[in-house]
Design a protein that fits this description.
Elements: H1 2-9, E1 14-19, E2 26-30, H2 35-46
Antiparallel strand pairs: 1-2
Domain Transcription regulator AsnC/Lrp ligand binding: 2-61
Protein name: Transcription regulator AsnC/Lrp ligand binding domain-containing protein
Length: 68
């Protein structure tokens, strides 16, 4: 898992990558210009990584700032 996180961190579009317990071992946040760009990232960069078995994509549609 650590190697996958390190490799994701090296990609320009990755904003955050972390290891988790539970149903997902790694969760990464990426930024792209369009849905087509996200698709290209998944097909050409992430899914070709031998340490990635499966992906689930969630698209943020609204930004909310939470203040403490």
């Amino acid at each position: 898992m650590k190697k996958v996180v390190e490799e994701l961190e090296e990609l320009d579009f990755t904003r955050e990558a972390n290891m988790f317990t539970g149903p997902y071992d790694v969760i990464a946040i990426a930024e792209a210009e369009s849905i087509d760009h996200i698709n290209n990232i998944l097909l050409n960069d992430i899914r070709h990584n031998p340490g990635v078995r499966d992906t689930t994509t969630c698209v943020k549609i609204e930004r909310k700032i939470v203040k403490n």
